[in-house]
Specification:
alpha/beta, Rossmann fold, 9-stranded mixed β-sheet
Length: 314
Amino acid sequence: MMPATRLWPATFAAFLAAAAPNASAQELPADEWLRQPVSDATFRTYLDFFAYNADLPFDPQIIDSTVDQGVIREHLSYVSTAGVRVTAHLFRPSTPSSGPRPGVILLHGGNANGKNGGNIGPLARLLARDQWTVLAIDLLHFGERTTGLLATFSNEEKAERLYNEPATYLEFVTQTVKDVSRGYDYLVNARDVDPRRVALVGISRGAVLSAIAGAVDRRLAGVGLLHVGHMIIQERGHRPAACPANYVARISPRPLLFISTENDALFPAETSIRPFQRLVSGHPVQVRWTEGPHGFLSSDDRSAVLEWLRAFPR
């Protein structure tokens, strides 16, 4: 029997004060949440940030489509929330299906190319060849959704202009969670994907966001967090509603996968990765330690993601 979600007691009154949208950066004891996440009562107040209109028409637009080695890749966009379009690549097998396929939503890391980043295509094609329908979306401010907020996309610039700007970062987090939920809706309602078998997999910053989205949207069947930790070395902290430490344990009892490296230059293993993983101790989780630098996925790593997905109940 899967363990129930752990109840975390609130021990600091500052947590509740910092939950307010107008809290300043100086009021944010982010490291405290890594040691002691907020209570369930406080967590439930965050859910209002992620409400969205599920009845909004998708208005999908196919930009182009290619076929390569049995995989169709569609370049498309669709409406996520009012006035916001998400650009994406949808990968699917070229062979017909006798019923709904399982699905995966992929979130890229903090690179300028967004969904066109180096890890996304190979992983998506591997999964599509195994009969999964894969939706790889651009995050707000990245890829085709660039806004001018970032120019160089260096870690220092992302920290200065996005990660360490509490209001801007909370907006980024909440929009991404809504984009994931709308991605789920799009796969299920417009692409004949099995609603019981849609997983979320994120890489680097996409994994930080996946830890949050996976806790918020309980329809997701499992969450894969690749090369993730609590904060990168350039981050100073953010609002509790945008902190993955307040979410990751609440993914339980659904399956959770970590793929991490000891050689991570952004998320130090001892101060960022392992403490973050300890938050899910006792829950159904797989942890794979791999060689290589931050963000690198070997063919074995990609295969491990596929095997983890294959183990989902049918």
